[in-house]
Every structure is written in C-alpha cells, then in structure tokens.
Specification:
CATH architecture of the largest domain: 3-Layer(aba) Sandwich
Number of strands: 14
EC number: 4.2.1.9
Helix content: 25-40%
Protein name: Dihydroxy-acid dehydratase
Number of domains: 3
Organism: Devosia limi DSM 17137
Number of helices: 22
Keywords: Iron, Iron-sulfur, Lyase, Metal-binding
Enzyme class: lyase
Largest sheet: 8 strands, mixed
Oligomer: single chain
Bound molecules: FE2/S2 (inorganic) cluster, magnesium ion
Length: 591
Amino acid sequence: MTLDNGEKKLRSRAWFDNPDNADMTALYLERYLNYGISREELQSGKPIIGIAQTGSDLSPCNRHHIVLAQRVREGIREAGGIAIEFPVHPIQETGKRPTAGLDRNLAYLSLVEVLYGYPLDGVVLTIGCDKTTPAMLMGAATVNIPAIALSVGPMLNGWHKGERTGSGTIVWKAREMMAAGEIGYSEFIDLVASSAPSTGFCNTMGTATTMNSLAEALGMQLPGSAAIPAPYRDRQEMAWRTGKRIVDMVHEDLKPSDILTKDSFRNAIVVNSAIGGSTNAPVHITAIARHIGVELEIDEWQAIGHKVPLLVNLQPAGEYLGEDYYHAGGVPAVINELMGQGLIHENALTVNGKTIGENCATRPIQDDRVIRRFDNPLKADAGFIVLRGNLFDNAIMKTSVISSEFRERYLSDPAHPGMFEGKAVVFDGPEDYHHRIDDPALEIDEHTLLFMRGAGPIGYPGAAEVVNMRPPAYLIKQGITALACIGDGRQSGTSGSPSILNATPEAAAGGNLAIIRTGDRVRIDLNKGTANILISDDEIATRREALNDAGGFKYPPHQTPWQEIQRGLVDQLGNGGVLKPAVNYQRIAQT
Ligand code: FES
Ligand code: MG
C-alpha cells in the first residue's frame, strides 16, 4: 500500500498502528511493550528490522553474531529503525547428527514463517557456518522483504609447528597420518584443534567461506563483508554499517528479487570457480535460485564456470587461510580481477544500491600470492564438470583438485586422454564404508573406483558428506592417498578429493547407483562428460526388476519426525535439494 506522500506503507503498520482494527492492534502492542519498548517507538512509523540470529552455544561458528548483533542494533537505531532480534533454528555443520544437511530446509521453513508472520519490514540475515547461509538466503528469497546478509567472518589462521593448519583440511591430513601410524589419538586431536584458534567459521575455502563469498558475489552483503575475520574490529564496524543500511533498504523498497537476478547467479558461478569454491555451492545456489524464481541449470556450472582459473590460494587447493584472504582484498579483489577479463556482469545490483561493478572497480588485489592475477593462476579450469550416463542423470566433479599423481595413475592412456576404467567397489552408506574399507578381501588396488550409495537426501536424510573416501591403510602406506570416488552424497568443502558427487537421482530415488555391484567395470570419460557401468541395457533392466521385486533400495529407518517429513518432500541434489512444495511459494510478502 502507498501513502499520500508516495512512500510505501510499512507492513509492520498492519500490526502496530491500524485504527481500523483496534482490537488486534492493542493485542499486538501490549505484548511487545512488556519488555520496555514503548508505544511511542512501535507507533513511530519507523521500520521494524528483524535480526535473524543464527548464533548460539550450539552453533559455535556463528556464536559471535550474539556480540555483533549489538553493533547491528546500534546501526539500525542510528538510521532510524527499530531492531527486533529473534532466534533461528541452529545448524552446526560438524555437531549435528546424522548430518547438518538435514536442517537447512528446516531452518529455511522456520525463517519463512517468522518473516511472513511477524511485524518485520526488513531483516538482517546473520550468516556463517555452511548451511546457515543458504538457509537464510532461501528464506529471504521466498518472502522477499528487504534483506541484507552479514557474515560472522572466518576464524583466525590456525598454526601448528610454524605451519598454517586449516579447519577440516587438517583432518584429512591427520587421518592419513594416523592410518599410517605416524601419530596417535591424542596428537590427532591436538593437531585438528590447532586449526580453530578463535571464534568464527572455518578458515579454509570450505563450504562456509565459499557460501559467504558467494552471498557477497550475489550482491546480498555489503562489499568486503565476507572475508573479514570474526575477531577483527573491522567486523564490528561492518555489523554497524549493515544495520544502518537495512533501514535505508526498507525506505528504498530494495528487495531480494531486485538483487538475485540471473546475472547475479552467473556472477556467483564465475566467482565460485575463481575462489576454488566447495562442491556444495551448486546445491545451495540452485536452491536460492529456485526460491527466487530464476532458472538455473546444472549444466551452467560447466558452461560458465569450468574455464575460469583458480585465483584464490587458500587451503584445501592452496596454502593460505582466511586472514590472508582478507588482507589480500577478499571478494571485491577477486571480482575486480575477473572484471578485467569481462567475466562479471557488472550491472548486477547489490544491497548498497550500487552495482557490483561500481563496488569492486576500486578494489584491486593487495597481495598476489594469496589472490593470484588472472595471467598467473594457481590452476587453469577451476570450475566443475557435469557428468552423466547410465549411472545417473547428472553429477559434478571438481577437476582442479586432481593431483598429477592421480592423473598419472588413472588418466595416462595416451589413446584415451581424460578416460579411465576400473573395477567398482560399492559401499552402502558411511557405516558400511568405515566397517569394510580396510578389509583385504575387497582387493582394492590403485585403479579401483570406490562407490558410495545411500548417501543422498533421501538415503541418508539430508545427504551425507561422505563421498570422499580414503583408500585402505595398506594403499596409503604405499603412497596412494586418493582413489576415484563416486557417489550420491556430498563431500565436505574442506576436502581436496577428486570425487564425482551429488549424483542425481540418488540410489534411493531410482538412480542406477542402486544396481551397481562390486566387481562391475565402470568407465568415466572426463572429456565427454560421461560415467557408465559397462553392462548391457538388458542387464540393467534385469537387475532393476530384481531390486523392485526385493522391495526397492533399502535405507535406514527414520529416526525423527522431520527425517520422515523431509524424505517425502525433498528434491534431488542436482535440483538444489529443496522441499518440492516450497518452490510454489514465491515473493509471499507482496500477496
Ligand atoms: Fe561451521 Fe565449518 S563447521 S563453518
Ligand atoms: Mg560441510
């Protein structure tokens, strides 16, 4: 509704200042007054700004938002708004069983209900740990009230014996050292703990740094916000600026649908390649796109992103960590460098009301050891490729993490560059893998392809980050640290494994991973983008019939009500893993 002076009437007025419905207005007001906020404030006509608080003692990565929210409030107040902070369902990546992936859609759903059902004119989305970022952006997309994201920032760099230890990445290294008998249980834990010296999210280029960087590349954060380490004073200042800005965004009626356009998603794909972003990014970015109503195909990740080189030299692909990323210029410097190559849609609008091109034009690289120049990248072709065949309709692979040793071992046939063939060894879920990986009877050798199935959004509710499997200990002792892994689950963004992931459809949703058997030959062709079991169509049909007769693909029983509800509604990873009915609801604050 528009007022006489041309300004849009704030939606919070329907609750707090509606003389036509005095009964309800009185009821709404009296309860919000009960902690001391005054009628004068609530009826002042000032925007009511929600602070969606994802930090708590259960969510250590985002916990610092509890402190930052104070500066956000001060910014909101200074710009003439009123802050109302509310809790968001916690999602702790490493602490939630069976997997934090289960909770992204739950936090999304609950945020939608809060933003739609309460008197909020705009919202500050506090983002950080892996799934908190997509959950918040998905919710803001569905409701479509003015929204701005604020990163909590990465932890300070971890150190051990003079070397940088990065979160997550150090675990993959430490478990190889333990499997090889170089360290024991206690040293293992000390080594891993050294990577977490302060408040904040993972300091590597895992899913958290990826998604926070992409939230900025999408235009949903103030420029430079993603990379500031959590404990730095600049982070407090950014919180204050973010609070100030959201009030103006409400007056300008600048909404997620103005910012999350096709061009901003294209920018996110390009930036994801240049930063060496997580293989979880396509899942989450697709989900955000579907909730705002922008068409984004999985193939665009290869078409737009594959040829972009890796510029950001952060672990796991490189050597540095979060503090270094910030000092080198963070996301604006990466985008500035990509702009020089014409790879960015510079007209995409951002939360500060300016275009991404305007924001980044004056922000060059500050340290080209950490953010490389385009003509001196860490690696060429840093994006994903999309594979398909009789195993699945689509799956993705980050080819930039293929080591030269791996390439030599699997991809050395000069007659067939990019092609490899091998024997499949199949595991049914992570427990089966942990139980049997070191069993010599499996006869796993350096050319084996390891399969993980039953790990998708239905099979292992929420989709487990388990596809990157370590080889058996006897191979690690021979120096074989990575085997080709293929599966319908996900992989941690902190892992540098060359795995084929997010297979869609998963075994539990009718995909042919359900009928592959240990001993089958499998052929992968990276150049053609194909992945096939070398059996006839008749054999596939026979196996599928036998599976159906046996009652279909088996997965563990539901443990909680939400597991059952989500299993019945969830889409596949290639489609963003969204709740299928939820994409029918778009821009609902306007209706
Ligand atoms: Fe929360 Fe990595 S575990 S950011
Ligand atoms: Mg993760």
